[in-house]
Amino acid sequence: MKHFALLAGVLLSLSACANSGEPTQNSQTTTQTQEVKAQEAPAQTAQTPEKAAGIWIDVRSPEEFAQGHLTDAVNIVHTDIASKIADVEPNKDAPINLYCKSGRRAEAALQELKKLGYTNVTNHGGYDDLVKQGLK
To answer: What is the pLDDT at residue 6?
Structure first.
């Protein structure tokens, strides 16, 4: 009977050690897999954002536009937007995306377009901010 009690005590001790929180080979592999997935996740989610549909209009000066602009953007100075918009987008319901250096001139252009009846106009702010977001 003493041997049985001793054997039961040893088995309980071994069982307690096995569940003491020490990683087993299986849990180490799981932890390593989770760490690798966590390291890969930012690369998978850091995708280049897509530009919004529609025409993109840079309302900065021609000199600013020449120094850099979004691909396929059209340059119409904000003070000329009312007289030139129909040449590039006659559809007043089409998406129109505006940007400038800070968003101020784009906002002025947006207000002019709304006065003309354009309904789907967005001020996207500053060129540098758009580039930092990954737009090209």
So the answer is: 46
